[in-house]
Write a structure and sequence with these properties.
Helix content is 46%, strand content 11%. With 396 residues, the protein is an alpha/beta fold.
Length: 396
């Protein structure tokens, strides 16, 4: 395939600050994009004020020049072609083949590894990083997407993170252009549908905008993943966090509702508020109660719930609302009916990977492992939630 020679014509002239330094990948992607090729469109987060997030604190946001992004796409494409040729010649791709490419013009080791992983995972999906691709001008986003599709016409899915506030500013006509250019799934961190919670954590958006943005993505014909953060409102706003989020999701009717339990890395401002006694963080039982209230408050929408993150206590909360609500909520209800000692055992067992599902609590051998971990960690009913907080920090 002949690649488009569009860099010089489409982009402003380079400066020393804008010198292309090779293929880039950012620090984050959704768990559901684990097999995707990662293409960095922007660096860091343009908002970067959310108190629950420490990922980009101290980092400067920037838009990558469009010509740099197009070069990244071409680099990966060229390396995919080279590696596929080697696979045809040798029957498989070996890491030693990478060294053989070092003398090739435009050699870029990170691009080669990205190409290799893309091939290994079937070349089915591409994720555009970092935190908000919709801050780009629609014309630039369309140009990038078209070039991705020209280089990789067989991919099933191109996806990205987006902020609701940015999406809400894009016209319906431009959203359709972006979808037609190739973007077919958007991940939005709603975090909460409660205006009180959103204001408290400095999310920089309100419920109405969250709803408008979600509905806009759906109208454009793209798949939509909305993320809800359990426990984000603390004890004082727990009920509101559950009910207002369910109400917002009922109005949006996203394709996916992805659950994220609040965890507080030391770099997050909310962690300092918690340590100072200014945030009433909930424990495992209260968070489970909030989860159950939200699930019970969802209407018969078409959304699929995904508990696809290591911070979540109940991995089996997974399925379509209309078909699997009872099965999804049963382990949560059963957990809440257990004596405190059993609740603690399941919690620690899950957090230390002795248990993978709630039903593992009935496995004698797995129970024995979980009890051993409780003893090793010195867990008691008094310090149980504190121990969980420390464990979860390892996974953030």
């Amino acid at each position: 395939m002949e690649l488009l020679n569009i860099y010089t014509d489409q982009c402003p002239s380079k400066t020393d600050d804008n010198e292309y330094k090779g293929f880039e990948q950012g620090p984050i992607r959704p768990p559901s994009e684990a097999e995707s090729l990662l293409l960095r469109i922007t660096r860091n987060c343009p908002w970067n004020q959310c108190t629950f997030c420490g990922l980009y604190k101290g980092q400067k946001f920037s838009l990558r020049p469009v010509d740099h992004i197009l070069r990244d796409i071409d680099l990966v494409h060229q390396n995919v072609e080279k590696l596929l040729d080697l696979e045809k010649l040798h029957g498989r791709i070996l890491f030693s083949h990478f060294n053989a490419l070092e003398n090739d013009p435009g050699f870029d080791r990170q691009a080669i590894y990205a190409a290799y992983n893309f091939i290994k995972n079937g070349m089915r999906s591409i994720f555009m990083q970092d935190g908000n691709s919709f801050i780009l001008k629609p014309d630039d986003l369309v140009l990038i997407l078209k070039h991705i599709r020209e280089c990789f016409p067989d991919v099933d899915r191109i996806t990205t993170y987006a902020r609701s506030k940015s999406v809400a500013k894009v016209s319906d006509e431009d959203m359709i252009r972006i979808r037609e250019a190739g973007l077919n799934r958007v991940h939005i961190g709603m975090e909460s549908g409660s205006d009180k919670v959103l204001k408290a954590v400095k999310k920089g958006v309100d419920k109405a905008t969250q709803i408008a943005a979600g509905q806009k993505v759906k109208r454009a014909g793209m798949e939509l993943s909305e993320y809800w953060m359990l426990g984000l409102g603390g004890r004082s706003l727990s009920r509101e966090n559950a009910l207002e989020t369910a109400d917002a999701l009922n109005q949006i009717n996203p394709d996916f509702i992805r659950l994220r339990t609040l965890g507080l890395p030391d770099s997050a401002p909310l962690a300092a508020q918690y340590e100072a006694g200014k945030f009433d963080k909930m424990g495992e039982v209260e968070t489970a109660q909030e989860l159950l209230l939200m699930l019970d408050s969802l209407a018969e929408i078409d959304a699929t719930v995904r508990s696809d993150h290591v911070l979540n206590l109940f991995q089996e909360v997974d399925g379509k609302i209309t078909e699997n609500r009872e099965a999804m909520t049963k382990p949560v209800r059963t957990f809440l009916d257990l004596p405190p000692e059993e609740q603690m055992l399941f919690s620690i067992g899950r957090r230390t990977h002795c248990f993978s599902r709630f039903s593992d609590l009935n496995d004698p051998q797995k129970r024995s492992y979980a009890k051993q971990r409780c003893r090793e960690l010195g867990v008691s009913l008094e310090n149980w939630d504190h121990v969980v907080d420390q464990i979860l920090k390892q996974f953030i």
